[in-house]
């Protein structure tokens, strides 16, 4: 029996409705517009703030690669939830990232910090644990900051070392920073950790830190 899949009313993202409703309830778009100042040409079909909103949707829905973002563009359920608007092509997101400046990255940090602060207002003063980790990100091509350091999977390939700090109880990202591939886990860690503490809302009190042994030396143990 021949089978065809020609129904244009089905969706892979039916569970996205509550997410979009939550974003609207907390004023997510307004937060982006008031913080992310990057501007495109006035005649651009999509401004940077709109594209950032689409990009957040893609990450929430597990579409972590550029080429997968087009799934949103052609999904009737997602487009209906967004108000029957058109989603940009994946090439537009590539161009957006290509033109990002350091100032834009700091604004993205600010958006993240404001979201954590907004969440903290729903809680009484509370103790939290911080989880710190790092990972090797292999680079493909001649990209800024790449160094041929420790790379367990691709020996000799240039990479960057990304350090991350999360609130253990909520998995909220507090700090994220990139270093050259030759950086060790404990390299510049104290500065990284102090930055993470500074990002915390005033009613979050760190109770402890969890990290693997690569982050430790005698000096850091005494300070922590």
UniProtKB/TrEMBL annotation:
Pfam families: DDE_Tnp_1_4 (PF13701). The lineage of its organism: Bacteria, Bacillati, Bacillota, Clostridia, Thermoanaerobacterales. It comes from the Bacteria. This is Transposase. Residues 20-151 form the Transposase DDE domain.
